[in-house]
Amino acid sequence: MKYLFLFLHVKFVLIFSLFFCFSNTSHSQDLMNESDSLFIDSINKLNLNNKKLILFENKYNEAIDQFNLGKINNAIILLNECVKLDSASANSYFLLSKCYYDLDLKMEFLHNIKKALLFDSSNVLYFSEIGNYYRLVTKNDSANFYYDIIIENFPNFSDVFYWKSLINIKKEDYSSALDNMNRAINIEEKDYYFNERAGIYRKQKNFNKSLSDYKICLKINNESSLYYNNIASLYKSIGILDSSIYFYNKSITLDEKNKLSFNNRGEVFLEKGDIDNAKKDFIKSLEIDSNYVLALNNLSICYYSSNDLDKTIQLLNQCIKIQPDFVTALINRGIYYQTVRDETKACEDWKKASKYGSELAKKFINNECY
What we know:
By secondary structure, this protein is mainly α. It contains 19 helices and no strands.
């Protein structure tokens, strides 16, 4: 009986030990299973994230291609899919803003560029885009708000002073414009900074400094037709006509499609009394752009000078049809009507010009209209 009890006791301990062992094994197995499950979940999540990343990159790159091809609506569709995959992608919102700007949807542009800035608040490009948008729509206080943020955080970003100067020029605040342009040039000497500063000096009647800056432009970039044109224009304004023609010739040599330089050189020929060469230049300018109102008006003067009144009125009518508020053409058409003894129509044109602020038209009205 004693041995039986001992045997049963040993058997019970063995069973208990086995139960304990199996119990521990089961618990360990549960832990292993749980660990395996977490590992598999993380792998699945990683694979899913990788798939989303790859899909995002493919769609974003395709959107860039579509944008560059000019297929703006296709690019927008792809970019909208991009922001669904990554709602914090500043690059996607930025490219969306460019798409909407090209479609002239300015509110959508502004919404998306501000979202880009929200997710990448240290990107000077986004501040610049918003500031320049406000400058172009003449919301100058808003533009300067963003420009001042740039100056505070990126004090060596020279273009921001150039942009502020452009606002000053529009407001005819040439002193502030000069200050801002000088700050831009002190940071970096770019040709278009000197070109703009030359224009400011010209407004201030400081022709020597203006000419000096235009020549600096050519030292930096002697392939610019515009800079030769501007020097020629400066010489024209101070009456040095031969030098003016020389620089217009240089401008046209660099850009044979430069309607501005052909028209302006024609004006110099007209001033010198060379009607034939003037007419050739105005016609050439109109071959480049048939709706160029300055050349149309100037060509009408050539025909008026040679007493071809039919051609004169044809060109003036065409000019005013394109730009009804073109004061010079209205005054000239009034002179034409006066020449053909139609005083009523002459006065009508001068009155229109007067409403647009022409002091010369007011003098014609006072002297000729009763």
